[in-house]
Amino acid sequence: MSDAPFEIRAARDEDRRPLALLFAAVAEERDGIATEPPVEVEAWAARWRLEGTLVAVVDDEVVGSLNVEPSRFGYGEIGMAVAREWRGRGAGSALLAEATAWAREHGLHKLSLSVFPHNAAAIALYRKFGFVEEGRRVKHYRRASGELWDSIEMGLLL
Ligand SMILES: CC(C)(COP(=O)(O)OP(=O)(O)OC[C@H]1O[C@@H](n2cnc3c(N)ncnc32)[C@H](O)[C@@H]1OP(=O)(O)O)[C@@H](O)C(=O)NCCC(=O)NCCS
Questions:
Q1: pTM
Q2: Is 66 in the pocket of ligand 1 (CB under 6 A)?
Q3: Residue 2 pLDDT exceeds 70
């Protein structure tokens, strides 16, 4: 990954606002992540959990992020997003590779996540890293449009 255009590093305090802005921009797409607008950027920035958050950075700009939220039960829940213009260039893969290393170092035995069934890019990324489909939640997410979306639960034993 040394020729990758981005650097993957642990999130720092000054990343709070860029993290929240990226999250808000991806929420605007109303497609890949569960959160929909409006995203209160300042509030999200203030409460962002930096521990377990990795960022992909290009020229000091945060272009991707991944958060591992460890549970009390030994697994960690993942959420991630890459800025639209940076997708398909390996940032998601680089973030996930670092996240699995971080999770092992922190004693987690498993990573898990929920993904919408239409999210082909995310599902392909997770499968590439060995995540398997563990189940489906039916009409689980009510969208602002009123639609009810399923989610696929995926997991990776570390
Ligand atoms: C899902 C997401 C994080 C992937 O990040 P990315 O930087 O584009 O991922 P990568 O470039 O590392 O691609 C990883 C793999 O996904 C697959 N992939 C990428 N884009 C794809 C697409 N449009 N369709 C199908 N597969 C795709 C490829 O198999 C690729 O593997 P390869 O490197 O061996 O070719 C990104 O698309 C994103 O932020 N989407 C919006 C937010 C979101 O959906 N978050 C996840 C919620 S569960």
A1: 0.96
A2: no
A3: no
